[in-house]
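This part of the workshop introduces the protein records we will be handling. Each record describes a single protein and holds just a pair of labelled lines. Instead of coordinates, the fold is spelled out as a row of discrete tokens. To make this concrete, we reproduce a full record directly below:
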Amino acid sequence: MIKCVILDDELLAISYLKLLCEQIDDVEVIKAFNDPKIFLNEIDSLHCNLCILDIEMPGMTGLQVAELISGSKKIIFTTAYKEYAAEAFDLNVVDYVRKPIKKERLVQAFEKAKEQITTVQKKAFIEWNTNIGKTVILTEQIAYIKTSEIDSRDKDIILNDGTTIVLKNLNFKNLLEMLPANDFAQVNKKEIIALASIKVFSTNEIITTIPTEDHNFLKLQIGEAYKNALLELYTK
């Protein structure tokens, strides 16, 4: 669900944009502003994940406003002036939509926003059913995942600090769908590795940064069926 806030100095532009947003699924306008200073005073207290900012406004431009917004909020710029495009994309925004805004073009911008918001959410944390109950795990803390030796339906998650948590009754297919796609890879039928935990990568073997009891580092054998996908992901 996209929860957005609108900032435009023209009330007619705000009304039109709100009308378009109401016609698009999974989009909710939380609040609209026509004054950048009031917007900046309130934005951190609003539960939203996207800001739609007009660029050309008196007193303060949308570009200046964007530089002051928390990085957790995605931004779509709107403007009638094409000369701002390059500067807008330097700020790593979701999209730049020219006025007059068409519904189809706005839908495209929202689809881009959804992809980026979903990626951020995946990278943050996942709630799993584990051996210690419902557990929230930060995905950046996961070093390695393997099939449990006690029950193959379960998966052992090894965290960066060596802690092991057992995921209950979860297959690799569903597990990979929950994890950030560019940060984890399946190595063979029984193991998944975080790319950040790879120390050395060869044709048939991965040497990880994960220490073992004999003071070496964990080695994983690469399954033939996973080589190409792993190599492509690792060399991106």
The two ends are 30 Å apart (CA to CA). The first strand starts at residue 2 and ends at 7. Residues 212 and 218 are 6 Å apart (CA to CA). Residues 103-124 form the longest helix (22 residues).
